[in-house]
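Hello, quick one for you while I still have it in my head. A protein chain has come my way and I'm curious about its shape. I'm sending you its amino acid sequence along with the backbone structure tokens. I'd be grateful if you could look everything over and explain what you see. Here's the protein in full, and shout if anything looks odd to you:
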Amino acid sequence: MPAATQIPESRRAEMEEFGATRCSGSELRRFLCVWLRVEGGMSAAGIARALKWSANGVRIVQRRFIERGVAVFADRKRGRRTPPRMTFQEEEAFLDGFRAAAAAAAVLVVGDTKAAWEGRLGRTVHKTTVYRMLERHGWRKVVPRPRRPKKDEGAGEAFKKGASPKGSPGRGQGRRGSR
């Protein structure tokens, strides 16, 4: 395993200044990842056990501190929803153009809506984004029951009546026919 990269003196001075300020939560944990290495001489595995982190996560924070300084200690928001492309009112205005067409045909073609949405945003979006927008505004997905296009209706009716559709032996007769 290669030797740990030494933390430059300029970064140590930054860390001392930052240590004098108040920090809490994830800022404090990131600070401790570096401080315990510098002041305590602890290994990444030891720091990880103390902070209940992974050793790799500790090494990442230490490496980023060496590269960027105390900026890595700043609180980051994690796991948040991406900002919306349009506000709710803008989406409502966008969908107003489709209401009349949907009412006349009783069907809204999502492909057309997606194309118009992408044209307005100037970028591509996944189809689930359009479906989620439609759901937010009370539109629901109505899909006709699947039906095989080449289905023979006569064969289905004959089967329901008990006759064999292809002229094969009926029920109970097998290959040899009746005895």
Notes: The two ends are 85 Å apart (CA to CA). The chain has a mean pLDDT of 80. Residues 88-105 form the longest helix (18 residues). The CA atoms of residues 22 and 161 lie 84 Å apart.
